[in-house]
Amino acid sequence: MKYDFQGQAYVFSTSCLDVLSSNRQRTFLAKEIGGQLFARFTEGVIVIEVATVTSGRSRRTRFGFWPDRDTERQDIARLFENGLHYIGDWHTHPEECPTPSNTDIRKALEIFNQSQHELKAMLMVIVGRSQFPDGLFVGAVTALNILTCRLTDGPFQIVAADACTDDGLQAKC
Ligand SMILES: [Zn+2]
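Above: the input record for the complex with zinc ion. Below: its predicted structure, written as tokens.
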């Protein structure tokens, strides 16, 4: 699947999408889970090759995910040795078509502004319960705000992001 943000193409690899899809909160009691996204920069395209699932002492509830920052730092160092750059985070939501919560937005802006990088934008990916792409929110985090990336290509039908509602489990895309 391919997304665009201000002329920059972002392509999600199949193995990355497999990790995200297989962690969807399918059951009512499933807890939120998440991890980091790692990309390779090739000829104007940013390919998101790896989605990690942050283990360690991460705290999880049905409506929240607090990753173990030490484990995350170790993952960043380990993958950097293989030419993979940290480009953002992902986590799940117990809603069909996910949208970022106020806490998500605050945390993402904090990470963008406090970490050392030369990225124009980081990614914030939220995995909902629906099949992709409806169940996938892809946001571009900049210093000031978070904007929805546009789906430009993929094996799925293109659906406008604003067709989604955010009123929880009953939402239909
Ligand atoms: Zn969230």
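Notes for the reader.
The pocket of zinc ion is lined by residues 91, 93, 101, 104, 126 (CB under 6 Å).
The mean pLDDT is 88.
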